[in-house]
């Protein structure tokens, strides 16, 4: 009996160890290869920068160092679920999931039953935390918020009719539906809509249809991203469409700025802009110092943000790494200073309140149009696909 | 009417690109019985060469020549390294080999170049368009149509009047007999791969000039389209591949243009249903290969 008592005590002590350990073990199940690698690879770089910075300073609050345990999920939903389970078995305190709602959703069952908080690197669909439950968090301005910002801008510019091109393939590519909702709420008229599939190469049929509209729509809004977007905008312009084209964060990429004349005047929403003296400028400088090149995309800064959120959460619970405590801490975070903006989870269902930057392509470079806070009454409710 | 004509021009431009892609698959299949799913990666290689040439500031004409040559060299190397050792293995083995080659190349691109799309700098005139009566035609559309026509004429001449081409046709018809006539198997097969590389390179330039970027997984969609077009036309038949390519292009464009909005979401399934319907009536494809001795029960 004493033996049993002893071993139980030891086991209990061991089980309780992670809670008092001085290491925050972060399970990273993201897409290092495959279709989502375009976002998750730069996110990983940003996360590592933040981790190195924090650990070099002695850890979170000078005592809790961060350890990343990484697994490649190959942009595959099933693999995400498997990798998440493996990470849970290794006793991590928090899990990082891929940049798209669909594979992130595949891990919900695992994280909910293990009661470990999970943050998607950059999934922007507001439905993710809604479906994901209390342990699922996002780390990007929501699609509905981005669409509100761009629709409001279009309306303020005097645009009164809009055409949307969206894809029902993923949550993210349905952002134009939010745009249409807000634009109509503001009093604008929808001139029509077209759907595309992700990976569609040829947009000439859609472009010809839009060009044949009389009158031409003032605005064409899409959340298509590379490689579809360049092909789409080239087709639209070649077909003679002259209206304002509005995109979203997926096209915040060097390709967009190298398209030349066709992309001039293009406007899109994204997670941040390095204004002089901003935190993003500081991040970009640090990135260049560490990597010898400037970041290709804002996603690296978003990865940095994610670690800063975890840091703030650990600080809020006095250095504990106990998963449920961390979950509650994340859910109550307010105004965490990330690289891109201030981040607030308090009062949300897990979709953070973050700044949205509105960028215009001018002379092949980015021009900041503003970082407006949208009217809360205008933001559409999350739409289930 | 103008709208219909305009969409028809679109259909020709897209169909032409599909035809070139399907031909690339058909040339190899007709001789080896291999569907080379790594064909798309040849295009990716061309795309990356275009990207690096653009960064180096080379004139576009030279970049294009280098990009196409790269695909030819890569295709020949692919045959020598990956496919020659399994040449006499079953069709399934060769198919799996081609998938393996495709995946290995994709991962190499992701790790050695970048997981992200890389911008390809293209001359400005490719984005322009000209008015032609009531029609507006993009320069890259005209380029696609003209290139397709030139390539088809070249291929026809090559297959009919060149010794290597005639040898390929003979091998496609009956490889054993062709070898008994003194045709060297290695030369014919390497030639077929070189030709498919040429077609992949040309198609890649057209493809990339439309999308202005190249990424590691770029080859998947075109090879899938080429596969559908090749089946639709008649696997192993070169004329069939061309017919299949143009028909697939027309189906896609007309559906995108004229299907009612409520049904647009189902455009791809409807398009594939049309392909299936064609195959129900012509199970061996539009223009079946003469050498295809398929037995249907």
UniProtKB/TrEMBL annotation, chain A:
Keyword Transport: yes
The keyword Kinase belongs to this UniProt entry's keyword annotation: no
Keywords, alphabetical: Amino-acid transport, Signal, Transport
The organism's place on the tree of life at top rank: Bacteria
InterPro entries named in the record: Leu-bd, Leu_Ile_Val-bd, Peripla_BP_I
Name of the protein described by the UniProt record: Amino acid/amide ABC transporter substrate-binding protein, HAAT family
Pfam families in the record: Peripla_BP_6
Domain named Leucine-binding protein: residues: 23-364
Family to which the UniProt record says this protein belongs: Belongs to the leucine-binding protein family.
Signal peptide range in chain numbering: 1-21
GO biological process: amino acid transport
Organism annotation: Sedimentitalea nanhaiensis
Automatic annotation (TrEMBL), chain B:
Cross-referenced InterPro entries: ABC_transp_permease (IPR001851), BCAA_transport_permease (IPR052157)
One biological process term in Gene Ontology: D-alanine transmembrane transport
Residue ranges of the TM segments: 12-37, 49-77, 89-109, 129-159, 188-208, 228-257, 269-287
Keywords: Amino-acid transport, Cell inner membrane, Cell membrane, Membrane, Transmembrane, Transmembrane helix, Transport
Topological category with respect to the lipid bilayer: Multi-pass membrane protein
GO molecular function: L-isoleucine transmembrane transporter activity; L-leucine transmembrane transporter activity; L-phenylalanine transmembrane transporter activity; L-valine transmembrane transporter activity
One Pfam family hit: BPD_transp_2
Record bears the keyword Transmembrane: yes
Cellular compartments annotated: Cell membrane
GO cellular component, one term: plasma membrane
Family designation: Belongs to the binding-protein-dependent transport system permease family. LivHM subfamily.
Protein name: Amino acid/amide ABC transporter membrane protein 1, HAAT family
Source organism of the structure: Sedimentitalea nanhaiensis
Origin organism lineage: Bacteria, Pseudomonadati, Pseudomonadota, Alphaproteobacteria, Rhodobacterales
